[in-house]
Amino acid sequence: MHKFKILKDINIKNKRVLLRVNFDLPIDENEKIGDTFRLKESLPTINYLIKQNCKVILISHLGRPAVKKLSLKPVAKILSKFLKKEVLFAGDPKKMRFGDVLLLENIRFDKREEGNDPEFAIELAKLGNIYINDAFAVSHREHASIVGVPRYLLSAAGFLLEKETEELNKILRNPKRPLVAIIGGAKMETKIKVINKFLKIADKVLIGGALANTIFASQGISMGGSVIDKNSFNEIKKMNLKNPKLFLPIDLGIWDGKNAVYRDVGPLQWFEKALDIGPKTIHLFCDVVMNSKMVVWNGPLGMTTQKPFDKGTAELIEAIDKSKAYAVVGGGDTIGFINEIHKEKVFDWMSTGGGAMLDYLANGTLPGIEALKH
């Protein structure tokens, strides 16, 4: 049972629907869009609204725009191809016909969005009769289009937001055991809370990537030019690093300026630039995963954009595939790599959220979800 309304709970036929989506896609200087994963995940909700003869008004952001270069116009073009119908862009919602789809310009061009300005939320709410949130990946943000608009309109979750919460609730409420959490990436400050949560609810927690570098640096190990998060040292000192559930790398893949080399982790060791977990750690982590029944993963274990430092992440994916564990993954870098090596079918659920997934797992809800309960 959901504690919030879902799309099929409400009558949306022939309505003007404000649909908050997450079309924050990678776009290069030539306006070429890279990974369209997040856009594709929103298509079921958009198509359902079209079939219900709605006027569909899409709200999204793109990056953190300081300039007008981050326009959503290229996204409107590629969305038209996926929907096989013209998507109007930045036009007047009053001129829409039923069945039309209109994508508004990047919502973050207006500073009132991130400031959660009530007047801005009201302006947006006046564009529609109903509000649908299908943007799980930004539902941890207290922005006007996420938490402000639902105060003024009948609101519900779209199919994607509904599915995201269902999948993550399986981990929180009824996990298959052994449950293994794999946590990598760079920013320790955004992940400490979820690491501590999994040390309570999971059977094993595997840490890699720059998170491991930061833990080692906080213990006085010389990490050279490795990516570390010094601001998290105090929080790390509060953690029980001797918890038997916690697995840290026992060796690391290093770039010494000329070659990729591998060295064991030790107090007297020097790491010029740690970019991956080492072969001994890969073997250890894969063994843990092979004996799991459920895996949740957020963040790569190494620099997946630079060979051979993608090896740790790639081999863990293969281990999950062989294990047949129920596997859930999130985080833009990790999913981007999975799509790149065509291993999408390994995972039972690929979350569109990175930070949002972590916050949901740590807290069991998000501000955007709470806003739907009003």
Task: Kindly list the characteristics that best describe this protein.
374 residues, alpha/beta, Rossmann fold, 2 domains, 34% helix, elongated
Report on the architecture of this protein.
By secondary structure, the protein is of the alpha/beta class. The protein has two domains: 7-161, Phosphoglycerate kinase, N-terminal domain (Rossmann fold, 3-Layer(aba) Sandwich); 175-362, Phosphoglycerate kinase, N-terminal domain (Rossmann fold), CATH 3.40.50. It is built from 13 helices and 15 strands. It has helices spanning 37-51, 73-83, 118-125, 144-148, 159-173, 192-201, 209-218, 233-237, 279-290, 311-323, 332-340, 355-363, 367-371, and strands at residues 16-20, 55-59, 88-89, 101-103, 130-133, 154-157, 179-183, 204-207, 246-247, 251-255, 260-264, 274-277, 294-298, 326-330, 349-350. The strands form three sheets. The protein has a six-stranded parallel β-sheet. The protein has a six-stranded parallel β-sheet with strand order 9-8-7-13-14-15, with helices on both faces. Helix 1 (37-51) links the parallel strand 1 and strand 2 (55-59). Helix 6 crosses helix 12 (355-363) and helix 9 (279-290) runs parallel beside helix 10 (311-323). The longest helix is centred in the N-terminal third of the chain and has 15 residues, at 37-51. The two termini are 17 Å apart. The mean pLDDT is 95.
